[in-house]
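Changelog-linked ticket: GFB example.
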Amino acid sequence: MPEAKPLYPIAGKRVWVAGHRGLVGSAVVRRLQYEDCEILIAPRQQIDLRQSDQVSNWIRDARPQAVVVAAARVGGIHANDTRPAEFLYDNLMIEANIIEAARQSRVEKLIFLGSSCIYPRLAPQPIPESALLTGPLEPTNEWYAIAKIAGIKLCQAYRKQYGCDYISAMPTNLYGPGDNFDVMQGHVIPALMSKIHRAKESGAETVEVWGSGRALREFLYVDDAADGIVHILKHYSDAEHVNLGTGDEITIRDLAKLMTEVIGFKGKLVFDTSKPDGTPRKVMEVERLRSMGWQAGTSLRTGLEQTYRWYVNHHLAEQRAIA
Ligand code: GFB
């Protein structure tokens, strides 16, 4: 289907991708290369996004017209649960600094990226955008969730008070090339990929999976997420946030089984129920996004195959080169 005329055409615009080295930011940079826009990135050694003067100086000098806020302190369930101060403080500072500096420098359009963990632990499933702030949060990631809810509210407040065209998108659990494959700090897909690959290589008979395996999650391949983010940037302008997902869900047990097939591991999965499951179920309603003419194109199996290829050919190869 041909793309509808955008509300905010980005052709010819200067677009700053804040967080260009991360999983999402790097995918947004890859995606924007197909648009006729100028991509701006701020080298990390040049700017600490938690420092407001550094952020406002950067925006004043670089003069972006549009900003994608993909910078964040992120991690899996264990990282969130054990480093609450960093997840709350760093994310609050990063988003508040960027949004205020964008206003001061008259940025025309800004998209803030949150997470599906903003919703109550026991939200109705699939989760509609309207479920925000209707119940208590999941304790393992409430700090991160509170920071991300504050980001949505900042965009809404700046729209209401200053008329800024700042919007928010809430991606579901993302995975893909460029992820953090650390077994303690990473999310389930990259962490299990590392563990299962190592078990295959060493001939181990078992792999440990955290939790009961019964928790349900929705996963979106990061290049699909980047495509959705650019679509929302171009086609949406309103106060309420937009869910960005597939609408499909899978148990952690079935995910782990699928990963053993993709990786070629023949041993057994062992579930460690002393580790938390986190939110029991988290699948988002994606009707708002579908009505804008967008849906994800990569199946979970294909996405896992592509991620595993990247993990072996880039991540492990790079680690060997460093060692
Ligand atoms: O991806 P994950 O860490 O984050 O965990 P959340 C998802 C599920 O996978 C949980 C299970 O039920 C974990 O117990 N799991 C099984 C594992 N084995 C593993 C493993 O080896 N590593 C990890 N990490 N999990 C995060 C939030 O929640 O989701 C963040 O903490 C953010 O704030 C992110 O919102 C999208 O889905 O539980």
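Closing comment: Example verified and attached. DSSP finds ten helices and 13 strands in the chain. The longest strand covers residues 165-171.
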